[in-house]
Amino acid sequence: MSITLARVDDRVIHGQTTTRWSRARNVEGIVVVGDKIANDPLRKKVLKAAAGNLKLGIYPMNVAVEKVKMGLVSTKDLFLISDSPQNFAQLVKDGTDFGGVLNVGCMNTRAGAKVLGRTVCIDQADYDAFEYMEANGITIEFQLLPGDEIKSWKEMKAKYDALES
User: Fold this and answer.
1) Which residues, 6 or more positions from 54, have their beta carbon under 8 angstroms from its beta carbon?
2) pLDDT tens digits along 77-112
């Protein structure tokens, strides 16, 4: 399979993506999916600069399924990245195979989100997306950097649920 990493990271492409993760997993290009990103010309420009020499495609959700399918048969090793777990849940709903494991990196503080760890804050929509994906066979792994301990959705869900009580 040509998708070597499927990742949620609210920063999308940054130094850790292009250095640390690219050493841990083969990568020749990055496929970014999400309407907010695809419709923001400034952010697209910044992401293109951040990608450096890596091939980059930035796509809205209405073409993401087709682009991910193309990535799966590509001869290039690709990272699939979005800033939101809801985008990955939508890919699952649309029948898209991105490898069965979703890596979750940085999800910073925002209104209504609960802090679950050093770099993970989720809200109810994120929670629902993770629940949906796990119920549909996707393994959710929370891991900021390749050498960090992996935390499961079960662990993070328990933290969220404890904060809700």
Assistant:
1) 18, 22, 27, 28, 29, 30
2) 999 999 999 999 999 999 999 989 999 999 998 888
Distance CA 21, CA 4 (A): 10
32: pLDDT confidence band, cut at 50, 70 and 90? very high
Report DSSP letters for the chain, one per residue.
--EEEEEE-TT-S-HIIIIIIHHHS--SEEEEE-HHHHT-HHHHHHHHHHHTTSEEEEE-HHHHHHHHHHHHT-SS-EEEEES-HHHHHHHHHTT--S-SEEEE--B---TTPEEEETTEEE-HHHHHHHHHHHHTTPEEEE-SSTTSPPEEHHHHHHHHHHHH-
Structural domain tally of the chain?
1
Residue 30: domain span: 3-164
Query: Which CATH number covers residue 78?
Result: 3.40.35.10
